Amino acid sequence: MTSSQLVEVEQNVSNLFKRFETGDFYNTLYQQFHKIKEQVNYQKRRRPVQVAELTDDNKERIKFLAQEKNIQSPKIDDLKFLSQFIGVTDVEIREKYVLKTIVECIKKHYYSENQLIWLKDFILNPDNLYAHILEPKNNAVLVRSSVLLILNALLVEDEKFYNLLSPQDYQKIALKLVTYSLLEQDYQGYNPKMGWIQTYSLIVEATKKICEAPVHRALKVYLVTAVLFAYLQTDVPLIFGENQVLAELVLTFSLRDNFYNHFIVMLLTQWNDQYKDDYSSNEQLGFWHQVYNSERLIDSLLVLEDLPESISNLIRNEIK
User: Full-prediction pTM beyond 0.85?
Assistant: First the structure.
């Protein structure tokens, strides 16, 4: 069940975007995200994570549906069945059979329009996209990362083939990703027992696709700012390539238009000013994770050959 706080954060994100779209907070968007983030009250206790039971019969059906002959003619009931298992801790079942089958059906264009609409609604359902996101680390991160993985496949193939998503759909997805970016705390990347959980990298990849879509540039700037904010404010180590995928996003975004380039320079300048204020007096472990995360990002940007001179000069003269 979606908590009232999640609804409130989504509403704050939506209201802020409406004002940003009309020109408000152009110079202070980064700080506005800070304000929204600071108002979030994370819960101190975990709730049980409900996922379908992996009985022997269910495993058998999952593997049966993963066979090529069955992938080619997917039924809506089979899709709904598989979706119940996107959060199971069994790495092989989740990655090799459940997620691979769903993603393959998207990539090979086996799903019907009605099936894709159901899948889109399933992905964007707050109970899935934000599953247990306000609680301490828990296995529901598998649900969140799985729906992000499926969303990325859908975004890629929609541009190439389906043409199902409208500009309104893209805006809805983008604003939900902004909300997600402000709320997510679990960026562990890889868990030896549960496999890959690349929530941040998946957010970045989805952002890249939305920035290529025919949507208003205010929405693109809004989303990129939130994704950059999430990286720079995360107080856990980001050591599984997140710096590289974000650097590539910053590069492609800044090269699109001088307006985007100017905005990236402004964001990095604002972050650097805050960083300098905190650096001399902060002894919190989380802060030092932020320091080394940001250094990895800066190093990743500097090795990019096409990095705009305005960004490289800022880094070399002001940040490094």
Answer: yes
